[in-house]
Amino acid sequence: MQATNAIQNQPQTIDTIVHGNCIDVMQQMSAQSVDFILTDPPYLVNYRDRNGRTLQNDCDANWLKPAMAAAYRVLKQNRLMVCFYGWPRADHFLDAWRSAGFRPVGHFVFRKSYTSSAKFMKCQHEQAYLLAKGRPPLPKNPLPDVQRLFYTGNALHPTQKAVVSLAPLVRTFTLPGELVLDAFCGSASTCAAALLTGRRYVGIEMDEGYFRAAAGRMARTRERMAAKRPSPQSRTDFAVFNA
């Protein structure tokens, strides 16, 4: 893979969080303009956390196929998407990915150090598919398919992912200067991981409250980077930017 400096998207969307429906926003973006997609969409399980917070469009799958088709359109040929999903609706997600044109080429399990719920089993992991458009080249240093998902406290979003858990994905599947898209950016963990590793980013968030939290977080991340000048190669740097 070679780093790309020419971004064909509208300049005002680069390195920003966009407030809007991801399908509409992606349809306005140039085709084949994104180098990597890392996203955590609603799992279609009508999720509600212990504080009563919910996620828009988590009750039905009407948006899923159009969103994945739009993601496929903006992703460059021979590139990859990592998409989290909820296992109770795995059939919906696989159907949407394949209908869009994506090809599953790997599967990540993110193990937790805590139990998020307990019914028949204690739920201590999340999962994501690695999906290809075309025939991407193999990474020089493949990641293990079992990764650690660090706990964030979910202060900004009910399903907030730790930056330190996402940064290895960004580093492995992109080069510095390339463009990372998160179409369901939530608290902007993907965008923070992209920024801290020297990549560019576009985040899209529909919910106004989460959009404001994400935009504020990115502003704080930039301020802390300017003050601390972190090395993108150090894991300890990312822990500072999880909040």
The shape is globular
First and last CA, distance: 32 Å
Q: How many DSSP-defined strands?
A: 10
SS-derived structural category: alpha/beta
CATH topology name, in short, is Rossmann fold
Largest sheet report = 8 strands, mixed
Strand order of the biggest β-sheet: 1-10-9-2-3-7-4-8
Estimated helix fraction: 25-40%
Quaternary structure: single chain
Low-confidence stretches: 1-9
Order of helices and strands: EHEHEHEEEEEHEHEHH
The proportion of residues in beta strands is 15-25%
Q: For the record, what CATH class applies?
A: Alpha Beta
Total helical segments: 7
The pLDDT mean sits at 89
CATH superfamily: Vaccinia Virus protein VP39
* Structural domain tally: 1
CATH architecture name: 3-Layer(aba) Sandwich
Q: Gyration radius, to the nearest Å? A: 17 Å
Write up this protein.
The protein is of the alpha/beta class and 243 residues long. It has one domain: 3-Layer(aba) Sandwich (Rossmann fold), CATH 3.40.50. The protein has 7 helices and 10 strands. The strands form 2 sheets. Strands 1-10-9-2-3-7-4-8 form an 8-stranded mixed beta sheet.
Condensed summary:
The protein is α/β, with parallel strands linked by helices and about 240 residues long.
